[in-house]
Write a structure and sequence with these properties.
two-stranded antiparallel ribbon; 21 helices
Length: 475
């Protein structure tokens, strides 16, 4: 969708904008005010089993050569007990704690104390101090956008160590992968618990807090919209982008180094995974200012879902392809490698160009050209709770005329390419495409629910004009 950002009343923290002048109802900006039984059951399930899922995947590679079914078969047939598996699991070590502590501290320093210089020397890059979207309470936060700079500094030091200083082995991440998992879990739970306590007793902005009265929901989905320490340290932006996403490419490089150490070569599949996921990571940091307008920043509160998820779920499960290739090196045929590369690059192209079309349309209020001609759109309006009527536009041409979330389609194509690079011998590396399909489909539904409530009959006109969500002619 491509509706320009509008100024909203601070009362929207309590009430949703009413579609086309209809009576206002209680607000859904961000997470819910009330918890239904299905949401509560889902949250309790995730709180109980998400950490076990991560452990299971990593343990499967460490003890069962990345077979997802073998551990279950061993347990069901009585060949092994849970205690046997746990006893073979590497424990938390002082070395891992030191590595992880230094890593997070270094990223905090780069984030909070090193102003961005990349926007001064890189044409087209938007960095430095930028404004985010208006919060439900009407606050516009400022952010120091310096993720690309942090990524560059970190990786320059990594390669300098690998080829010159030799302070530590490039395989250090892989060699301490499970002990580092315990460190990441500790940080994820500490940050999430601190965020909840902070929301109750010393929130950054009390008007941007939501309380359901249900401990589990508030803990997972968060209370504060934008918890901060000081002027610049924003929990949501830091943990969404650093340390997990900066580490993503380092983790893959460590996997490649381990392949070289074990087999004397780095396979073309490992190179593909490093290149395609590296493009995704670099795109994230190049467009970090744009990220301030996405669902994670504009709608989600900061709780366990983001705090633990960004510390543990993201770095451990988004990098499964590289981990798998350490245990099962795959040398692809030339045709397969080229096909997977093309799929990944085309997916990235669709993802990036689709988002660019939306941003261009928003930034010019429709006075631009998409694919060489003036874009088509639907005029729409909504009325805020204070009675003010706003007008907006929903684009129905370009990639946005093909499907309402065609940027997600490109993202899924890239995700599939990562998985295909691993061959077809095991299920484990395909977890990512399954997870991303569920995640992005759910985001489609969340986003469209908000838009229907906001635009009412105008949204129905839009969906009649663009009937498909992700795949033209199918879904």
């Amino acid at each position: 969708m491509a509706a320009p950002q509008e100024k909203r009343s601070s009362e929207e923290r309590k009430h949703r904008s009413a579609p086309n002048g209809a009576p206002a109802s209680r607000g859904q900006w961000g997470r819910a005010w009330e918890v239904d039984w299905f949401s509560l059951a889902s949250i309790i399930f995730l709180l109980m089993f998400a950490p076990l899922i991560v452990y299971y995947f990593i343990m499967s590679c460490d003890q069962y050569q990345c077979s997802l079914l073998s551990p279950l078969a061993d347990l069901l047939l009585g060949n092994r007990r849970l205690s046997d598996i746990w006893d073979k699991t590497p424990p938390l070590t002082g070395r891992a704690a030191a590595i992880y502590g230094l890593w997070v501290t270094f990223q905090v320093i780069l984030y909070a104390f090193v102003p961005d210089f990349c926007h001064k020397i890189l044409p087209g890059y938007v960095g430095g101090v930028q404004e985010g979207a208006v919060t439900p309470a009407g606050i516009v936060n400022k952010y120091e956008i310096n993720g690309l700079q942090a990524w560059i500094i970190t990786h320059v030091l990594w390669f300098a160590n690998a080829y010159y200083f030799h302070w530590f082995s490039p395989t250090i991440i892989f060699d301490n992968w499970i002990p580092l998992l315990w460190c990441a879990n500790i940080l994820g739970y500490v940050v999430s618990t601190f965020a909840m306590i902070k929301g109750y007793f010393f929130p950054t902005n009390a008007k941007d807090c939501k309380f359901t009265g249900n401990f589990f929901y508030d803990y997972m989905m968060g209370i504060e919209f934008n918890p901060r320490i000081g002027k610049w340290f924003d929990f949501k932006l830091f943990f969404n982008g650093r340390p997990g996403i900066v580490a993503w490419t380092l983790i893959n490089l460590s996997y490649a180094a381990k392949q070289q150490e074990l087999y004397g070569q780095v396979t073309n599949s490992m190179i593909l995974v490093n290149v395609l996921q590296g493009i995704y990571v670099l795109d994230f940091f190049w467009n970090e200012a744009w990220y301030l307008k996405t669902i994670d920043i504009c709608h989600d509160h900061f709780g366990w879902y983001l705090g633990w998820g960004d510390c543990v779920w993201l770095p451990y499960l988004y990098t499964l392809q590289g981990l798998y290739l350490v245990y099962h090196p795959v040398q692809l045929g030339t045709a397969n490698a080229v096909g997977i590369l093309i799929l990944g690059l085309v997916g990235y192209y669709i993802f990036r160009v689709t988002n660019h079309q939306k941003d261009l349309f928003r930034g010019t209020n429709g006075n631009c050209k998409i694919w060489g001609k003036k874009p088509e759109y639907i005029e729409c309006s909504y009325t805020s709770v204070d009675g003010t009527k706003y007008h907006s536009k929903l684009m129905t041409s370009g990639f946005w005329g093909w499907a309402r979330h065609f940027n997600y389609t490109g993202d899924l194509m890239g995700s599939l390419a990562y998985c295909l690079a691993c061959g077809s011998a095991h299920l484990l590396p395909y977890f990512y495409i399954v997870y991303m399909t569920i995640l992005l489909t759910h985001r489609c539904i969340r986003d469209e629910h908000r838009c229907l409530s906001k635009y009412g009959k105008d949204w129905k006109r839009y969906t009649a004009k663009v009937p498909y969500r992700l795949i033209p002619g199918i879904f």
